């Protein structure tokens, strides 16, 4: 049976695979190791199934998989992705999550985009049944924390380093999408990106807040080939981007393969002072208002790709946040935005995110659906019930799109091969037509 034609809402979770380096590259913050996934991955997949979840944000550790140019160690990926396929769990493959292998160095390396695209292509060739991808997670945050705040990887803190990191990261993402499409023409890219907003706390702060609210869109503007705002164009040019580099992004036309992933946490909104400094504001507008802003800008289907909150002393803090975020998702949907999925991130508690991975303290953050003993938390029970209650209701009563997903168990079916061949032919036709017409992505 062609079950991919059955409408479905993408209830998801994720297994955190962040791996940036700190202390000048001496320490790698490998969340898969910190959270015990290397030892407990089979049990972790059991937990995903226990929740009734079929979509999992997941990826191999790039720093131990990508050993050199055209050199790969697929042993862990072969085992884990083989099990996901057997279980018919659909991975949303997270290929680069805040870090690169030691031999690449960091995001200032101009070779990174081409090298990463080769890695993405090699993964797609190794696992041709995989359809959903997040090539590079939270591109803006990755560049900001690595090259503007000085926290990770290159640990630089200036605008030129930030623009350099950003242009390399987004170019790598674009080249990776093209590389994957060359292998799997019906691939779908769910771009997880932090959705931010900056509030001016007084009239003198209006201008710096406006600049920050324009800057927050840079990664997605470039990724989707949208012309940036005029002040942002000057900012990019003043800090090392060339006209040719900018026009590379305008020459891309990959939106048709994309779903915009919006991540939202309590820390995503900021108060801006007159001097441009910021501090956390807590939730003011919320996911509904901010996601609507992003959708108005890009006009793409949306997925809520990350959220969580600490389980506090009352034990119900995370449960109440889940309810609030879900209410926001329903409000977005009822306002006509095509929203196709929701994610509590991550499956288990995380470690050291209380310092944004800047410190290697081993502090457990109670953010998961399960604790690190793999015991379910109240929010895990609540999410399991939410999925059970809503998974049959939403497709029949919503404007969410029917995403043409091929289940892993169906990837060898004749209709699935036909679907891929049709997508390949359409892509080739579209490419040849584009080369003749040379359209502008204004």
From TrEMBL:
Residues 412-442 are annotated as: Disordered. Residues 415-425 have a biased composition (Basic and acidic residues). Signal peptide: none annotated. Transmembrane segments: none annotated. It comes from the Bacteria. This is Family 1 glycosylhydrolase. It comes from Spirosoma soli.
């Amino acid at each position: 049976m062609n079950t991919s034609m059955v409408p479905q809402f993408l209830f998801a979770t994720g297994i955190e695979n962040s791996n940036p380096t700190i202390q000048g590259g001496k320490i790698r913050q490998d969340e898969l190791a910190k959270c015990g996934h290397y030892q407990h991955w089979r049990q972790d997949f059991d937990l995903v199934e226990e929740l009734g979840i079929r979509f999992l944000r997941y990826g191999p550790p790039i720093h131990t998989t990508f050993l050199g140019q055209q050199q790969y160690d697929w042993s862990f990926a072969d085992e884990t992705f083989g099990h996901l396929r057997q279980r018919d769990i659909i991975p949303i493959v997270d290929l680069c999550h805040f870090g690169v292998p030691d031999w690449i160095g960091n995001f200032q390396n101009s070779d990174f985009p081409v090298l990463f695209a080769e890695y993405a292509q090699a993964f797609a060739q190794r696992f041709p049944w995989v359809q959903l991808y997040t090539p590079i997670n939270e591109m803006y945050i990755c560049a900001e924390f690595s090259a503007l705040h000085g926290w990770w990887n290159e640990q630089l803190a200036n605008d030129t380093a930030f623009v350099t990191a950003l242009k390399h990261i987004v170019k790598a993402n674009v080249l990776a999408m093209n590389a994957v499409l060359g292998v799997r023409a019906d691939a779908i890219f769910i771009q997880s990106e932090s959705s931010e907003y900056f509030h001016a706390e007084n009239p003198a702060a209006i201008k710096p807040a406006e600049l920050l609210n324009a800057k927050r869109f840079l990664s997605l503007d470039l990724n989707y080939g949208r012309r940036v705002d005029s002040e942002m164009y000057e900012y990019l040019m003043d800090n090392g981007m060339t006209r040719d580099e900018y026009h590379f992004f305008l020459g891309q036309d990959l939106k048709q393969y994309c779903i915009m992933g919006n991540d939202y946490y309590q820390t995503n909104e900021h108060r801006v002072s007159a001097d441009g400094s910021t501090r956390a504001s807590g939730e003011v507008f919320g996911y509904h208002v901010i996601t609507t802003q992003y959708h108005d800008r890009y006009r793409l289907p949306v997925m809520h790709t990350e959220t969580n909150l600490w389980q506090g002393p009352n034990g119900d803090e995370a449960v109440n946040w889940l309810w609030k975020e879900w209410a926001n998702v329903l409000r977005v949907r009822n306002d006509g935005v095509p929203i196709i999925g929701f994610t509590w991130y991550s499956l288990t508690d995380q470690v050291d995110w209380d310092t944004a991975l800047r410190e290697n303290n081993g502090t457990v953050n109670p953010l998961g659906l399960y604790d690190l003993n793999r015991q379910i938390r109240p929010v895990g029970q609540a999410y399991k019930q939410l999925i059970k209650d809503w998974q049959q209701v939403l497709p029949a009563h919503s404007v969410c799109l029917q995403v043409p997903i091929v289940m892993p168990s169906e990837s060898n079916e004749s209709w699935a091969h036909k679907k891929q061949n049709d997508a390949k032919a359409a892509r080739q036709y579209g490419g040849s037509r584009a080369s003749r017409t040379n359209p502008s992505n204004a």
